Amino acid sequence: MTSQSDDFESVVKVKREEAIAEFHDDHKGFVKKLQHALHVTPSLVPLIVLVLSIGVFGALLGEKFFSASSMTLVLQQVQLVGIVAAAQSLIILTAGIDLSVGAIMVMSSVVMGQFTFRYGIPVEVSVACGLIVGTALGAVNGWLVAKMKLPPFIVTLGTWQIILAANFLYSANETIRSQDIRDNAPLLQVFGTTFKIGADEAGQGGATLTVGVIFMLVLVAVLAYVLRQTAFGRHIYAVGDDPEAAKLSGVNVDRVLIAVYALTGLICAFAGWALIGRIGSVSPTSGQEANIQSITAVVIGGISLFGGRGSIMGALFGAMIVGVFTLGLRLAGADAQWTYLFIGALIIAAVAVDQWIRKVSA
Amino acid sequence: MKKLLAGTALALIAMTGAASAQSAEGMTTCLITKTDTNPFFVKMKEGAEAAAEELGMTLNSFAGTVDGDNETQVAAIETCIADGAKGILIAASDTSAIVDSVQKARDAGILVIALDTPLTPADAADATFATDNFAAGLLIGQWAAGTLGDDAANAKIAMLDLAVSQPTVDVLRDQGFLQGFGIELGDANVIGDEEDPRIVGNDVTSGNEEGGRTAMENLLAVDPEINVVYTINEPAAAGAYEALRAVGRENDVLIVSVDGGCPGVQNVAEGVIGATSQQYPLEMARLGVQAIAAFAADGTLPQPTEGKDFFDTGVKLITDAPVDGVESITSAEGTDLCWG
């Protein structure tokens, strides 16, 4: 073994130094490093913006804004958009878009309410029916996209109108009052149940969380795990990045698409349940802007509208950024128009950053 | 082709004109509302249908798909002109954009009455039949001030308005409330320029529960001691109530509103809303159809209510805790008159 001729290892060592092909580290300089880091961790940008905006508003407004009660209030105010944005993220990761999310949400809440109050069906069954209706509506979207090969924008533009119209026709735009729900079917409002941490004796101040907020956080955590660690999750990214390549690698693209749209419908139905908890009543006119708001959150959250790239945490941060701006500007006494102006600017900035990061992909 | 069409339309109008001997019997009237889904407009349609049937007229109803849908209303007016209608009742979605189409209808000899929402300018229509929204606001303002008594001087007021675009109805109700409460107005055409420190802030609600709750939460974060809440309508009020209930303040805050829908009136009965100003969509439509019948019969034009530039279809304050000097009816009486 000690003889020179048998020294295979040294041969290998020499070979290694030949450097046939290697990855060059192009990430020199701070900007390049940053660009690379952002490319690897897409939810970093919205997180930085979120922390910065909390810091700026906190510095401007002091304790009024930078308190447990105000911070948790933001969470309460964004819970619906957050839940719907989580669903929207799944669709956008497949390079699709869903304009019908808000309509599915409202329709599901109306089914839950009307089944209970109009037909006297036990509330547990009504809730299950609402969740089934939401899932079915999502599955129809998915079927039209996957099997009929229609563009998602067109499909959901159509189903959005159809579902909203059906919602108004079915409910006759009748509101079921909060008091009636509280007395007869409190399960419908379960997402509004609040927990207070650190409130004073009068029940004021302190952090306030609702079941809806906790649901949103758990949902995002679960989806983040599914997207990163499971085959189904990786398939969603694969389909969004390049459906042809995914198909050739043995992914059943149609089945993934239908499953994603159906899952989105189910999540939206849960959002409808949370909507009842949030506003107390069942109101067919609520939540009509949820589609635009969820897309806004997703875009600000750094998820690429071209599919296949982005993290679902980003969508949550995106929703929270909008919430922080809305509350912060209102506490600062600014007119409501300013909120829209800033959110518009954020959207453009987010897409610009996305384009810049994409340049690193080579 | 265009000329031919216009000629045909004119001929049609001439024919229908000749056919209208004296009565409105068999005449066509159009009703164009903002949407088919809002109970307010559903009630309006009911009123118009009942009145048209009574007078032997045919009623054609149209509605936009959503509030703000101008194109569908323009198409509806064109259909009415082609149909040879004698009159059009319209609750305009876009009060400025619709004006040209309304003018075309008037040029064709059709009586156009704006229902609920005045056009911009108001004289673009032959007449306006509407709720006096300023008076509606005034009543709830006076009631809130009267209920608080001497404490009104230290009130902390939240103003939950409709939209950032400040549509007329939004401004009139908001400013009416403030005047009724005894607050000095800035420009009466603008929301939010008052300097009275009793106003904690203004926020917009989109007139629904979700917006009402969020706006209330925002203003409570500005000042948790708010004790008077003005709301643009009853769904916004219901949302504000939920926000107050979440912080345990629902029993020491006065909520006032405008509309008079059935769920809102029931909320007055149960103490959720202190007082609401009720408006009467059925009455608007009924009076509108009758005015068109009168015009068809002998060309009489509807006259505005004395001292106002529109025909006031009335507003009543509903509360179960009346205040001296402010006329009101009980929630039980309000329930008989409510819509939706």
Automatic annotation (TrEMBL), chain A:
Membrane topology: Multi-pass membrane protein
Keyword Transmembrane helix: yes
Keywords noted in UniProt: Cell membrane, Membrane, Transmembrane, Transmembrane helix
Gene Ontology cellular component annotations, sorted alphabetically: plasma membrane
Main location: membrane
Molecular function, one GO term: transmembrane transporter activity
Keyword match Protein biosynthesis: no
Compartment list: Cell membrane
Name of the protein described by the UniProt record: Mannose ABC transporter membrane protein /fructose ABC transporter membrane protein /ribose ABC transporter membrane protein
Annotated source species: Loktanella fryxellensis
UniProtKB/TrEMBL annotation, chain B:
Signal as UniProt keyword: yes
Keyword NAD applies: no
Signal peptide per UniProt: 1-21
Location of the protein in the cell: Cell envelope
Residue ranges of every copy of the Periplasmic binding protein domain listed in the record: 31-296
Molecular-function GO terms, alphabetical: carbohydrate binding
Keyword list, A-Z: Signal
InterPro entries in the cross-refs: Peripla_BP_I, SBP_2_dom
Single GO cellular component term: cell envelope
Superkingdom per UniProt: Bacteria
PANTHER family membership: D-ALLOSE-BINDING PERIPLASMIC PROTEIN-RELATED
Family: Belongs to the bacterial solute-binding protein 2 family.
Identification of the protein by name: Mannose-binding protein/fructose-binding protein/ribose-binding protein
Organism, as annotated: Loktanella fryxellensis
